[in-house]
Amino acid sequence: MAEVEIKREKKKKRIKEEPIDDDDVGTLQKSANFxxxxxxxxxxxxxxxxxxxxxxxxxxxxxxxxxxxxxxxxSPLNRDIKEYIKSGFINLDKPSNPSSHEVVxxxxxxxxxxxxxxxxxxxxxxxxxIDRTTRLVKSQQSAGKEYVAIFKLHxxxxxxxxxxxxxxxxxxxLFQRPPLISAVKRQLRVRTVxxxxxxxxxxxxxxxxxxxxxxxxxxxxxxxxxxGLILGVGGQMLELRRVRSGIQTERDNIVTMHxxxxxxxxxxxxxxxxxxxxxxxxxxxxxxxxKRIIMKDSSINAVCYGAKIMLPGVLRYEDGIEIDQEIVxxxxxxxxxxxxxxxxxxxxxxxxxHGVVAKxxxxxxxxxxxxxxxxxxxxxxxxxxxxxAGKLDKYGRANENTPKEWLxxxxxxxxxxxxxxxxxxxxxxxxxxxxxxxxKLSVSGQGDVTITTAIADENCERKxxxxxxxxxxxxxxxxxxxxxxxxxxEKKKKRKKDKDRELNEVE
Length: 507
Hints:
The protein has 16 helices and 17 strands. The protein is of the alpha+beta class and 507 residues long. Among the domains are: 2-28; 91-249, Pseudouridine synthase. It catalyses: a uridine in RNA = a pseudouridine in RNA.
């Protein structure tokens, strides 16, 4: 028996070693068992290396997987080059002499686009990372910033520890007034410094370098002056560099103006898009830290037109969403549709089947990127058919040809209901309770009680009288001669009256 088993093993080894021909399919099927074995383990999809908003897509909470995929739109990285440029941003290392506005204008001219923006201005002599995008510039401007600054103290300090202590005091909410040379109104305001760290200090030259993380709109020049005041020696800022703006840092694909010029030259003259795609990044890269909600393809265009984000259109949603939190609504391909303010928490979304999930803050996607999918229901289709047949007017309102069944069955929820007509209360009508209260006030001597309605009536009567007098003057225009005679008569009457008064006084 042992010899037979050894022979079988040898035969099997020969079969594996020999190359199998396409015609010899029968021997291949006999050599192995081609069947799917039952297993309790579900196949895992590794999305940890997926780009941008689709990263860790499998870890999102699933509301439903049932939707109709549409062939419209595309992944942010696979967009057409013109669309890619329009919906992108550049993490730019700004040169230190020109201002931020000048640099943005140059980029606009180089890339030949309609709009450019930046995520915060600084002085012309400051090197800074700016992001070029117009739709998300507000959210980037309000995000935190990080700086590295070089300062100089006017006199020597006892020790480096004193400088560290002074920096530690300049944390939290601080009063700041912009410097004399600044682009904003010099008003006292409060700005928060989250963290600061002394990186280096040279005692021989009284110069130091520190890193600071602060709120948008903080003035580091003012902070250096305050540091000098705290130490009692005076101080000023020499150099400043912004190392983080929002979520973009110095290490996140930073480019220079020369890189932008070279990339555009390669695209225009050699039709090479690779460098331009490396310099410009999709705007979804700015929204990586936002909580996500994935929408169905059929509801995307409605959101672009301003519709509410309702729960039936949601496919997946992230953990930890809170009410009034800023979130991003995106497609199944990873495109950002809009920024929104959450109206439901994650727990509410899991337990409800209807309701408003979020309200739109800023729409990012262009309209009609995806097809319209509203107005295709039975009522809407019947309404369109009646409009085409002339039984409703072009706005969908009833006319003389409208069938009675439609008038009774159709309810227009968009039509404004007429306000209920309230009969005006007469001016002289006063409730008995108010009357007794007014009498009590007058008796107690607390002050005269005036009825506003009576005053209003008097004013109306005066206006009417003035109006009548004006109309009479217009109807009976007198000649200039008659007017002069009337004025002379009036003057004579006045003189007579004055004489009579003088005589009476003498008597």
